[in-house]
Design a protein that fits this description.
Strand content: 15-25%
Number of helices: 3
Number of domains: 1
Low-confidence stretches: none
Helix content: 25-40%
CATH superfamily: STAS domain
Amino acid sequence: MKPSEPVKISAPNELTAANCQAFRDLARSAIGTACTTAVVDLSGTRFIDSSGLGVFVSIHKILRERGGDLRLLDPVPAVRQILELTRMHRVFEIITSNPTKQPS
């Protein structure tokens, strides 16, 4: 399968049990049936709970089955801390839109 262009998905201000199903549906729709790489923009996301992390795992599994991956873009310090505490930063590639900016 030829790699596809990454699909960029913007996460909501908060990604919690209250809205994770809607975000999961949005992400699945965005990646369709052929996308191999997705980038979730977390620059505007201030909080994420375990349900939100579950969405990332779900989408990551779909993309890995296609030979691709899920990348997380510009998580704010509070979200980055959650990713590190749960060791999800070892599962997902965390990228920055400003390569000179150091992670907090």
